[in-house]
Design goal:
By secondary structure, this protein is of the alpha+beta class. The protein is built from 5 helices and 3 strands, in the order H-H-E-H-H-E-E-H.
Length: about 110
Amino acid sequence: MTQPDQNAFRALADPTRRDILRLLSSQDMTIAQVAGQFDMTRAAVKKHLTVLSDGGLITVEARGRERINRLNPVGLAPVFSWLEYFDRFWDDRLDALKSAIEKDAT
């Protein structure tokens, strides 16, 4: 696993950051708009946004004095790739179990 992949998983490890991603999935938001959704300081929200940006899960665009935070769906690719492995793993295991049960039933 490469460093950017590790950063994406690190970013997703925190429930607040996952909640921020959910917010950004519906609209782009400034730091102030995101902070308005949480019971924490703007500085704390900015730290969460920095971790999400470092993980490649959001992009930040400067518009004048504002910084617009946007979900970066491409940044989730390493996560989906990792989960896909386990999805195939369980499909194979369940197929083998089904075969074993059907064999015992006959």
